[in-house]
Design a protein that fits this description.
Elements lengths: L1 E2 L6 H9 L4 E4 L6 H6 L6 H9 L9 E3 L1
Parallel strand pairs: 1-2, 2-3
Length: about 70
Amino acid sequence: MEANPETVTEARLAAFRAAGVNRLSFGVQSFRDDELRKLSRLHGADRARAALGERAPPASTTSASI
């Protein structure tokens, strides 16, 4: 399942896990705000980092890629 760092929430991650999703791919192309703006990404670098942090419990059994 792919998740956008701008729209992912703890509740959404828990719902994914409850539905049987065990692998997430976060659409993080960069952790640099200037590059993200050039790519027209909705999220900034801080939001991307926060989204990755949100996959801690209750979604801790889910693996993730970026």
